[in-house]
Specification:
It is a single chain. It is built from ten helices and nine strands. It has 294 residues and is of the alpha/beta class. The protein folds into two domains: 2-120 and 268-292, 2-Layer Sandwich (Beta Polymerase, domain 2), CATH 3.30.460.30; 125-260, NAD(P)-binding Rossmann-like Domain (Rossmann fold, 3-Layer(aba) Sandwich). The strands form two sheets. It has a six-stranded parallel sheet. It has a three-stranded antiparallel sheet with strand order 1-3-2. It starts with a strand and ends with a helix.
Length: 294
Amino acid sequence: MIEFESAKSRLIDREYFLGEIIARLPERHVLLSTCNRVELYSDDQKKPTHLMDLNILYHLFRVVSGLESSLIGETQIQRQVKDAYLTSVQAGTITRDLHLLFQRALRTGKRVRTETEISRGAASHSQVAFNIIRQFEPYLASAQITILGVNHLNFALVRYLVKHGAQTIFVANRTMDKAKQFASYCGGKVFPLNELPLVLMNTDILISATTAPHLLVHESDFPPQRDMLVIDLAMPRDVDERIGLLPGVKLFNIEMIEKTATQNIDQRRHIVAKAENIIHQEVLDCVSVFRTSP
């Protein structure tokens, strides 16, 4: 029987839940952990699979289709679910039933995005952040941009920035080799995190999206009287909120980014309904396969 635990609420709840889950991971499982979501799918092979809770199917299929995301229709979650699934495959923690569940879920997500327009016009976090940057710093060619963290989110954002003229980019990451690879892509320069206060003295735009469990950028790190746009995409936050109160500093955190990107769901309700119909079809098909499988 496939069972399910999840946390998607306040940051402190998510971090506590993740720690608790990791401390007691079952032998057979898939763990999905994103910036605002922790979900554990485990398989007790001693229980019959036909007793699977339909709510698990509907939930996972909605998640991978982008219907449970804060930005409805966003595409990043499809890759995150696939990565979680493949991680379990590589680690040998997968079972036949979990294989089937996640393969069907990924197929459902692909169908929803192919057969509906759920992702058309749906802004990603990186797109929203880029729009904010363009609003406050239109002259990217003359701006010094400092990036903390090497990941898909920062990579997508820097791709937008370089395409629109950004030239001076500094990159820091816990792993220097990854920072160098990232910097080589965007023509940037690498610096160690302990030199951040020095780099900030000339920074116009600071973008941070790391997986650090604690603050990386403190109020004491900031140079006095320095105008700066700060984009904190991390969960938990990388940047001390008090920095946003400093003169000349404009701070946007992940909650503000999502609020800025809120879609008018009423205008897209027919698209969501079509996506839900596809999910319903796939759930019924998946249940049928589970019941007929030996």
